[in-house]
C-alpha cells in the first residue's frame, strides 16, 4: 500500500512540474500548447529563404532583425497535409535545447489561439496507443473546456541530430 501511495505522490509531482502558462495554437483543427517559457516571440508570415537538400518539413530560414533562424512547418513535421498559408498563419519563434546550447527556431502554425494557465490537476499523462509510437514530444494532455489540448515538449519535437543540422543551415 505504501508503494502505491509513493507512486501516486510521484505522479502528482510530475503533473505539478508541468503546470504553468502555455501558448495554444491550431494545427489541422486541433489545439496544441507550448510552454510560454519556450516562446521568444510570435511573428506574422514573412519571406522564407528555402535551403536545398533539407527535409520537407524544413521551410528554410528567415532573417529576424539580423539573426538567421531556421523555420519548420509543424504540420509537415507531424505528417499532416500541407496547406496554403493564410492571414492567420504565423511563425512562433521558440528556444529549444540543442546539443551544446539553446537554439532559436521558427515554427509555422495555422493560427495562434491564446495563453492558458494550465493547472497540474488538469494535465493527464500521454496515453499509450498500444503500438511503438514515438510520443516523447507530447508533454501531456490538458483537459480544458470539455476538450483536450495536446501539450508539446518543443525540445523533443526535433531530435538532437535534426537540431544540429538546422543549426548548420542557419
Description:
- The protein contains four helices and eleven strands, in the order αβββββαββββββαα.
- The longest helix is centred in the first third of the chain and has 17 residues, at 2-18.
- It has helices spanning 2-18, 74-77, 154-157, 160-169, and strands at 20-27, 30-35, 39-44, 58-64, 67-73, 90-97, 102-109, 111-118, 123-124, 138-144, 147-152.
- It is globular and about 45 Å long.
- The chain is 21% helix and 43% strand.
- The strands form two sheets. The protein has a six-stranded mixed sheet with strand order 8-1-2-11-10-9.
- With 170 residues, it is an alpha+beta fold.
- The protein has one domain: OB fold (Dihydrolipoamide Acetyltransferase, E2P) (Beta Barrel).
Keywords:
OB fold (Dihydrolipoamide Acetyltransferase, E2P), 170 residues, 4 helices, 11 strands, six-stranded mixed β-sheet, globular, alpha+beta
In short:
Helices cover 21% and strands 43% of the residues. With 170 residues, it is of the alpha+beta class.
CATH topology value: OB fold (Dihydrolipoamide Acetyltransferase, E2P)
Task: Determine Rg (CA atoms, Å).
Answer: 17 Å
Question: Which overall shape is indicated by the principal axes computed on the Cα atoms?
Answer: globular
Portion in strands: 35-45%
Count of helical stretches? 4
| Order of H and E elements | HEEEEEHEEEEEEHH
**Percent helix range:** 10-25%
CATH secondary-structure class? Mainly Beta
Instruction: Work out the number of β strands.
Output: 11
Q: In CATH, what is the homologous superfamily?
A: CheA-289, Domain 4
Category by helix and strand content: alpha+beta
Biggest sheet details: 6 strands, mixed
The strand line-up of the biggest sheet is 8-1-2-11-10-9
CATH architecture: Beta Barrel
Q: Gap between N and C termini, in Å?
A: 54 Å
Q: What is the total number of structural domains?
A: 1
Uncertain regions: pLDDT < 50 for 5+ in a row?
11-15
Query: On the 0-100 scale, what is the average pLDDT?
Result: 83
Amino acid at each position: 500500500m505504501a508503494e502505491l501511495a509513493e507512486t501516486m505522490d510521484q505522479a502528482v509531482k510530475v503533473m505539478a512540474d508541468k503546470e504553468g502558462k502555455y501558448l495554444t495554437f491550431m494545427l489541422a483543427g486541433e489545439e496544441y500548447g507550448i510552454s510560454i517559457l519556450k516562446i521568444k516571440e510570435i511573428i506574422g508570415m514573412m519571406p522564407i529563404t528555402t535551403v536545398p537538400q533539407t527535409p520537407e518539413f524544413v521551410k528554410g530560414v528567415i532573417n529576424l532583425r539580423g539573426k538567421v533562424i531556421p523555420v519548420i512547418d509543424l504540420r509537415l513535421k507531424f505528417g499532416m497535409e500541407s496547406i496554403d498559408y493564410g492571414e492567420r498563419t504565423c511563425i512562433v519563434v521558440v528556444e529549444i535545447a540543442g546539443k551544446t546550447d539553446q537554439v532559436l527556431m521558427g515554427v509555422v502554425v495555422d493560427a495562434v489561439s491564446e495563453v492558458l494557465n494550465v493547472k497540474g490537476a488538469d494535465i493527464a499523462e500521454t496515453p499509450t496507443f498500444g503500438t511503438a509510437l514515438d510520443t516523447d514530444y507530447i508533454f501531456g494532455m490538458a483537459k480544458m473546456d470539455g476538450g483536450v489540448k495536446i501539450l508539446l515538449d518543443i525540445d523533443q519535437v526535433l531530435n538532437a541530430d535534426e537540431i544540429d543540422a538546422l543549426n548548420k543551415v542557419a
